Recover the amino acids of this structure.
């Protein structure tokens, strides 16, 4: 039997995690575990602002040190460093054979994942804030130059998506890769066909739009804004179906639940929020963070919520009850991103402290 020791404040340390034994009856029923990383990925020389899983065995990170790195997720060893950008790397993606990075140096780059060689440089006239692959291998980039651009799988220019009047903050493909969704500082989101035609303009925000995301069936869009709200739109006719209010500060991220019935938000007011899509009703706050929340995600079955923010903590909540089930600690500065592994058994984080970390659930 493992012997625990009681730490100040009623914490029991068992060697792997710390359990809060505070007197509150609800907390006794569902004790909160404070867990520390199983791996620290410590090779970057500047903040790690982008991170993603490459299956269960590898992870990919992007940093303000102008590099991206591929790591072994079991040993923590760096297997590949991608060097060539001349300014911070802002976004990373992978299609299994190639790595895609975007940077403040006004370029995105395609890299061979085996050799680490740069295959193509994709140029914009401003910082490239996001980059992603479609299911068919096409590449999408978005820039503060007010455009998004489509590229072939080989990196040849296909379309320039022009129409926004201010910088873009994000762009993504629809679930089947048949359309593109952009979000802009001009307060709108736009829906585009792959031939470059803008087919919908989603209006209703009173300030810039940080992000726009599709539902899993591609029939709805959720946007989030500096106006403290998120909006749900119908893709077919552009109608605003719901205005999701309840936050007191800017909403940085909004994502649909796996069954598209709910929206999860991350906001500057220290809360993550949960909303019902069909009615727009506010359901609950996830309220353990002390500073702004930047990153949120659902588990695969929607039963848990993952959050990360400026208070250096990463937390997992029970979606139904709102209880905090786990607090992952170990970062020394703001946490920019937290993502579940494909099996939902681990969490990958990236932080201003220049490290990425892997936590076991």
């Amino acid at each position: 039997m493992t012997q625990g020791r009681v730490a100040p404040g009623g914490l029991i340390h068992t060697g792997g995690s710390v359990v809060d034994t505070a007197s509150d009856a609800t907390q006794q029923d569902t004790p909160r575990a404070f867990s520390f990383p199983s791996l620290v990925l410590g090779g970057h020389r500047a903040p790690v602002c982008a991170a993603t899983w490459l299956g269960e065995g590898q992870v990919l990170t992007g940093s303000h040190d102008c590099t991206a790195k591929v790591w072994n997720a079991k040993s923590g060893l760096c297997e590949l460093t991608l060097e060539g950008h001349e300014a911070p790397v802002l976004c990373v993606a992978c299609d299994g054979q190639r790595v895609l990075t975007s940077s403040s140096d006004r370029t995105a780059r395609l890299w061979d994942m085996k050799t680490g060689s740069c295959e193509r440089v994709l140029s914009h006239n401003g910082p490239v804030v996001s980059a992603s692959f479609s299911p068919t291998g096409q590449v999408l980039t978005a820039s503060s130059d007010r455009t998004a651009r489509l590229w072939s799988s080989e990196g040849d220019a296909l379309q320039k998506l022009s129409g926004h009047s201010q910088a873009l903050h994000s762009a993504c493909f629809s679930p089947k890769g048949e359309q593109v969704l952009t979000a802009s500082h001009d307060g709108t989101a736009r829906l585009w066909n792959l031939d470059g035609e803008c087919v919908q303009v989603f209006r209703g925000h009173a300030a810039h739009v940080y992000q726009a995301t599709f539902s899993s069936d591609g029939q709805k869009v959720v946007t989030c804004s500096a106006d403290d709200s998120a909006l749900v739109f119908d893709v077919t006719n552009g109608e605003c179906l719901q205005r999701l209010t309840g936050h007191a500060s800017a909403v940085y991220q909004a994502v649909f639940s796996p069954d598209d019935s709910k929206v999860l938000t991350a906001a500057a007011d220290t809360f993550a929020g949960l909303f019902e899509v069909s009615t727009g009703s506010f359901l609950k706050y996830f309220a353990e963070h002390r500073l702004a929340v930047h990153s949120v995600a659902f588990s695969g079955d929607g039963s848990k919520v993952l959050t990360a923010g400026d208070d250096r903590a990463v937390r997992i909540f029970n979606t139904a009850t709102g209880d905090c089930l786990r607090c992952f600690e170990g970062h020394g500065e703001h946490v920019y991103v937290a993502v579940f592994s494909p099996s939902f058994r681990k969490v990958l984080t990236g932080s201003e402290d220049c490290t990425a970390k892997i936590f076991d659930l």
